[in-house]
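Sequence and structure are no longer studied apart. As an example, we show below a sequence and the tokens encoding its fold:
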Amino acid sequence: MEPTTSRAAWDQAYARVESSLHAAGVADTADLPKLEEVRVRFLGRKGELTELLKSLKDLRLDDKRELGPKAQALKTALEAELAAAKDRLEEASDAQTLNEDAVDLTLPSLRPPRGRLHPLTTTLHSIAAVFQSMGYSWAEGPFIEDEYHNFSALNMPDDHPARDSQDTFYLDGVNRLLRTHTSNVQIRTLENHAAKGKPLRVVCPGRVFRHEQIDATHSAVFHQVEGLVVDRGVGFADLKGHLQASLERLLGAATKTRFRPSYFPFTEPSTEVDVKCFFCPGTGCPSCKHTGWIEILGAGVVNPKVLSCAGWDPEKWTGFAFGFGVERVAMLMHGVRDLRDFYTNDLRFLRQFDEDFV
């Protein structure tokens, strides 16, 4: 077969490709996309150097043997130059990325989100702490209680409304139930200390359960802090002094209170204690049920029958008891109008009670 391309024409084509390669300046290419353009221009399927290599088949056999290695050497040199330029550009890109994303090791570390105590928990602890500073010890008891310690030992008759299933969560029949107050802890503490013959001063915080309609000031599950003092010669005046002092420490020295006569089977005399509404100037609002006052606790002198039932001699010992509703105290302390807000688990609401909450 006769050659279709002369040696002179091929030499001219080689010179043009070599000149174009020199003009392209592979070693000076500034970024990877431009480098890829150079590679495609010369080594692509229809690249200038690729076409030059294809044209070798149209030369005479002697020319092929002489010029083939020359063209292949040009290709090898170009591939090596492209690879070196690519490595250089990738290294520079990596260095720039590292520089932009560099971490200053002298900066303090980022703190991961941390939980905080719930405002009801902190309020419960605050109430208990006030009474512990007054010499009260801390006592706890079971959530699941028997009828005796929840009702009978507290001088509640069998027909008392609180025993009804509309007010109490019974678990099996009428013997096991979810405690309706932490007074069961007081009874168990009285029983455990009866034989010691020593004065008793105890505070009993915890969760309680009642079958109640949920609204702005009531819940089926809530918290109480109950207190009990048994000593010789203590009475209502001592009770009033303890409660007034504790409320002023919790809610402020300007806290106004009123003691209203009431009735509880386990205390005699009994009282309910109200505080002046924090949300209105006494004119009435939904939070105070338009009375200007908010009921915050019940209290009274321990009924002698309760002392006797627990093994204490009521001729020698007297005492008083009281019970705080933690949710209502928290509402007053933090200016919350609806206790249901405490149970929504809304972080926007909870963050306002701790400036470190993140």
